[in-house]
Amino acid sequence: MPRTARILCLAVFTALAAPLAAPPTAARAAEPAPVLLHQGERFLRIGNLGFAKANYDKLIALYEGTPEAAEAHGDLGVIAARQGDDELAMAQYAKAIAGGYQLAHFNMGQALLRTPTIDNDPALRNAARSHFQAFSRYLDSDAPKPPILVHSLAEVRAELDAALKRLR
Is 4 among the domain residues? Predict the structure, then answer.
């Protein structure tokens, strides 16, 4: 291909590709955090972990530092736990908690309870207990709670009480 034709092709390709390389603010406007979070939750609910993870990863890339990103980290922890990777799950729960997502305390406590050495490790037991107690304080607070938690409060309380009893 002659040099002029290559330059022309490159110019056309660059002109066509430019709209695809939109700045993050355009991407943020096109896909608001609540939409990405809702889509991720929908995929998680039906068990499509790959699509859920893709939505959460995108949300975090665009909105890290927001409450939605903290919740997305919590849900990535749920995905990791479902896939048997409690180490990754706990890392994601820690990011969710650092971002203010209080529900991750319960999941972190559950992940710690699944640690094989929990019964012989006082530090792990204390850490799990601390997360369950933080979650209990959240349940007792006036902070808004997601509808799924409100509707399953009795079951969640029973599970929380059983976990705390095991850790005594």
Answer: no
